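in:
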């Protein structure tokens, strides 16, 4: 929050993630809780998206103002920030073969009607 006040809302095009729909994540945790699986399992959405585009999707869905100016690149170009990995695309092949849950990505999740 302090950074938003100091620097304004920032969104980055060089930070790629695979966000998962929260209901899919909850279903995954419930399914794993009753299973015999033990170990690490990557769970992520199906499609990669940069933080800026995700912010635009979220703003449009919630009828907010769009995020601040598009910054190319922006994630790690300031010295006062913690350096973060720019491309975090988790391999979810094991999760997809083990689970019955469908792991929707940002594009499909943002197209779903609000409850």
């Amino acid at each position: 929050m302090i950074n938003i006040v100091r620097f304004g809302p920032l969104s980055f095009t060089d930070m790629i993630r695979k966000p998962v729909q929260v209901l899919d994540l909850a279903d995954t945790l419930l399914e794993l809780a009753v299973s015999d699986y033990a170990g690490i399992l990557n769970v992520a959405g199906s499609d990669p998206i940069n933080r800026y585009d995700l912010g635009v999707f979220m703003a449009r869905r919630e009828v907010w103002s769009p995020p601040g100016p598009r910054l190319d690149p922006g994630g790690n170009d300031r010295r006062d920030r913690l350096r973060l990995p720019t491309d975090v695309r988790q391999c979810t092949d094991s999760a997809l073969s083990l689970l019955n849950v469908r792991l929707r990505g940002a594009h499909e999740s943002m197209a779903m009607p609000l409850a």
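note: The helical segments are 2-7, 22-33, 51-61, 93-98, 106-111.
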